[in-house]
Amino acid sequence: MDKIAVLDFGGQYAHLIANRIRRLGVYSEIFDADTPALKLRFHKGIIFSGGPNSVYEKGAPTCDPGIFKLNIPVLGICYGHQLMAHLLGGKVKSGGVKEYGRAKIDISRNVGVLKFMGDEQEVWMSHGDEVTQLPVGMEVIASTEGCKTAAIADEYRKFFGVQFHLEVTHTPNGQKMLENFVEVCNAEKEWNLKEYIEQLKMNIQKEVKNRNVFMLVSGGVDSSVAFALLEKTLGANNVYGLFVDTGLMRENEAKEVHDSMEKAGFKNLHIEDAGADFFKALKGITSPEKKRTIIGDTFLEVQKRVLKKMKLNSKDWMLGQGTIYPDTIETGGTKHSAKIKTHHNRVPQIEEMIKKGLVIEPLKEFYKDEVRSIGEKIGMDKSMIMRHPFPGPGLGVRILCAKKAELPTTWKATEKKMNEVLKKDKLKAYMLPVQSVGVQGDSRSYKNPVVLTGEADWERLASISTRLTNQFSAVNRVVLSCAPEEISKVEFSGACYMVPERVKLLQRADAVVKDFCVKKGIHNAIWQFPVILIPVKLNGRAGETIVLRPVCSEEAMTANFYEMDFALLRKLSDQLMAIKGVSAVLYDITHKPPGTIEWE
Questions:
Q1: Which end of the chain, N or C, is more open, meaning fewer C-beta atoms within 10 Å of its C-beta?
Q2: How much is the pLDDT for 267?
Q3: Domain residue spans in the chain?
Q4: Per-residue pLDDT at 44
Q5: Same fold yes or no, 3-185 and 411-588
Q6: What pLDDT, on the 0 to 100 scale, is given for residue 336?
Q7: To 5 degrees, how large is the angle CA 352–CA 355–CA 361?
Q8: How many other C-beta atoms can be found within 10 angstroms of the C-beta atom of residue 458?
Q9: CA 188 to centroid of chain Cα atoms
């Protein structure tokens, strides 16, 4: 079977590239960046992934330069594009403009990956460095306004480099570009997911051996598919599902999960009410990282308690989790990846158990779209596998906690400059006194959102959002004020922690949003709809602010904000403002990158 090798230079993208190649029917293997060239000599092509480093930094990941002597086509993407140019004698420097999000490339030559791509294409950028001098034999085949070397090629040696991420769904014709590279490689399309599932079942049996699996079930897509796959492989009597009600779930979530999984035919499912445990553990905690770690550790404590209560010998049981690849990569789980946020299923205790062979995660190499395909192919009901994703920590990562207002020392000057930029757009900008997690240049950012007031269509707002996050380093997220429409005062609501009253407020708001989307027929058009609670009040109105964060995506590595009809958005905002304790309603208009899907 023909294979294409993907070298992992960190960031979020190596497995996503492999995913996209497999979609084309070609088997792809992932290797560490420093894999010897000889080990790759029988592959039909080699792809260098993106990564969070700069090629000119001391200790930056590199590859065996012998790869360029194998007479095999090579494609470099983002960091991989820069590294290829650097190793072949070109130069890479910090770019004058840092690009995150949508961009347009002007194509000067339709060759290699840009064959049949016309004069221009929309692409997805996430970079701060750029190639400033080409190696001998290379030529520029596409540029953007801020990057002259957006795509380069050496047709003779079949070396191609692109500064943008063609593997993400937000480069609309990126899959066709990858297919162009596969054609350059002359790789046969002989791989399919159905056959791979059988290999997956064999791997599960080999890993579990004569043990049983104690599966942590959230009711979400990932853990449900993992649960079903384990049951079908090992038998229902050998897999025990535990749903932990953390007190941080959505309104009526525990009952809905139980009913839906019972209807789907799952056996051995137990629900443990552990809300008091989680609230106690989270008391007084504000740091997003600490919250995630505490939630992960508390899950394990509850699991141990249930095992003891059921008198099960822990030596005979493995812990099962519905971990998927983004959980691993965003926690910094590969050799050169930067930590974006610690997922609850990647806390230190779990990592230690993984090293000891006590954890099974059958879906850890897959993305959400592949997980759904696996669920469909093993016969799961579509209503279960098409549910909106919901994080394991639940509302614990959708309720921002803070002891005091958090603003950079230069916030007034930054706000003034932003308003100068926005003057011609007739919009006003205000920095919010809280911080949220983002991802810029494949690295974690923890910065302030900025809220806009004024009228503009979605296309212009998207452009303005990208412009602000690219131009102002203190900002990683942009939101639009829905209610109030004009802002006279922005205030911190006061010290806020994870307490039942705040959870109930967000549960109610989240339920209103979900019911509204279902009734208006837009639920299925949205991939995921986080509803966020932040300790901010506007115009002196008591309470806290609700942020709406609907996104469109497939694999969670990149995402566009959902462009809701403005008339519907006004109606939804009115319903939310009617909830006691809601001060304002904002709408997140940030793509990923630079803003992560969740705010924490």
A1: N
A2: 75
A3: 3-185, 193-394, 411-588
A4: 98
A5: no
A6: 46
A7: 95
A8: 15
A9: 31
Neighbours of 581 (CB within 10 A): 16
DSSP 209-236: TT-EEEEEE-SSHHHHHHHHHHHHHH-G
Calculate mean pLDDT across residues 504-509. Answer: 98
Output the pLDDT for position 269: 85
Burial of 559 (0-12, 13-18, 19+ CB in 10 A): buried
**Predicted local distance difference test score (pLDDT) of residue 11:** 66
Q: Which of the four CATH numbers 3.90.1570.10, 3.30.1490.20, 3.30.300.10, 2.120.10.80 does domain 411-588 have? A: 3.30.300.10
Average pLDDT over the chain, rounded to an integer: 90
In whole angstroms, give the CA distance from residue 196 to residue 203: 10
Of 16, 6, 5, 11, nearest to 325 by C-alpha is 16
Q: Is 455 helix (H, G, I), strand (E, B) or coil?
A: coil
In the annotation, is 86 catalytic? Answer: no
At 485, list the tokens. 């429409």
Q: Encoding tokens for residue 40?
A: 């790759």
588: left (phi over 0), alpha (psi -120 to 50) or beta: beta
- Token pair listed for 312: 């099960």
Q: Which residue type does 350 have?
A: I
Beta carbons of 599 and 400 less than 8 angstroms apart:
yes
pLDDT digits (tens, 9 = 90+) for 407-434: 999 999 999 999 999 999 999 999 999 9
Is the preceding peptide bond at 172 cis, omega within 30 degrees of 0?
no
Distance, CA of 134 to CA of 91 (rounded, Å): 7
Q: Per-residue b/e over 193-212, b at no fewer than 16 CB within 10 Å?
A: beeebeebbeebeeebeebb
Predicted confidence at residue 341, as pLDDT, reads 44
- Token pair of 98 as six digits: 């840092």
Cβ(282)–Cβ(294) under 8 Å?
Answer: yes
- Mapped onto helix, strand or coil, the DSSP state of residue 45 is strand
pLDDT the model gives residue 299: 87
From the list 15, 86, 165, 336, the catalytic residue is 165
Separation of alpha carbons 592 and 168, rounded Å: 11
Q: Is 167 a catalytic residue?
A: yes
Which residue among 15, 43, 63, 78 is the active-site one?
A: 78
The region that residue 276 occupies, defined by phi over 0 for left and psi between -120 and 50 for alpha, beta otherwise, is: alpha
> What percent of the chain has pLDDT above 70?
94
Using alpha carbons, list the distances in angstroms from residue 36 to 6, 32, 417. 13, 9, 50
**Residue in 122, 131, 17 with CA at minimum distance from that of residue 85:** 131
For this structure, is 165 an active site residue?
Answer: yes
* Separation CA 292–CA 564 (nearest Å): 30
Give, in words, the CATH class of 3-185: alpha beta
Q: Residues 81, 86, 130, 167: which is the catalytic one?
A: 167
Reported CATH class of domain 193-394: alpha beta
Integer Cα distance of 508 and 399 in angstroms: 13
Give me the residue label for tokens 């208006």: 520
